[in-house]
Write a structure and sequence with these properties.
By secondary structure, the chain is of the alpha/beta class. The chain has 10 helices and 7 strands. It binds NADP nicotinamide-adenine-dinucleotide phosphate.
Amino acid sequence: MLLSSRSIVVTGAGSGIGRACALRCASEGANVLVADIDEQAACATAALIAKKTRGCSGKTAVLAVDISKSAEVEKMVRAAVEQFGGLDGAVNCAGIEGERAGIDKMSLENFDRVMGVNARGLFLCMRAEVRQMLKQIADGERERAEARGSNDDDDVASSQNSSSVCCGTFSQDAAIDQTPCSIVNISSTAGSHGMPEFAAYCASKHAVLGLTRAVAGEVASRGITVNAVLPSTTDTPMVRRFARQWPAWQAQQNASFAIGRVCRPEEIAAAVVFLLSGECRAIAGSTLVVDGASRL
Ligand code: NAP
């Protein structure tokens, strides 16, 4: 199991890609906090985890969270710590598409709402998650120092520093190898190219990449990897909403994927779990595109 006993929070876990990620994390042995603005949907995901893993997963807990509200996000991280004893990983997946309109017709309210969830909400989640992970990492360092017979924080700091300095050879004991904390942010292929008539969504998903890259550079040397996954069209309730409003778009999607179909939520979850697992700790600050060789 790739995530045995790891404690992971998944936002937007009541539906689509988030639900698939929560299910996959649980089936890989993780304790999963299923977080979503829609509590009923989150409960349904927890029920699915129980059914599909038949009690072979770690623990599962459910929390209603609006990620655009700082206090609720803080509560989410506290809940993971209270329920599972810590936080080792996070999948920041909750997001909204907002309204479809050209820039000349788009309301400011739509722009603020989409940015409020997809960019501000993701910032709030990462900030709270990183704070908790850094605290755990510092606690672990302190315990290791105590076990070595030293309670001196300066020793801890110098051992952390020496791990990132090469003295005639390559460093072998970096913090990243000792403390497997990982964050995966869900952006979109709309985070790397323009998506006409979805300027707010597109801007928010570009913002996810900026946040990912900046924070990855801050925390990688301290033991946390941060990466982003960029799904292309994936068959979820969000995309079905698009398709209902815009049938021509659906036909264009089906024709544009070189693999012959749009992506499945489980395929996005597979990429997420690989990045969460720490199988390759050198992947940090990266942006993994999952797009079925789409020609869009
Ligand atoms: P989805 O089926 O609509 O699921 C999103 C979940 O997030 C829903 O349960 C939603 O609840 C919840 N949510 C919305 N606002 C929230 C908030 N403020 N706080 C907490 N939870 C909130 O969408 P999806 O297709 O799985 O998309 C998941 C993520 O993947 C999004 O970030 C999306 O932008 C990204 N993505 C999707 C695709 C795609 O083709 N599906 C492609 C690229 C990227 P409600 O239903 O009550 O709003």
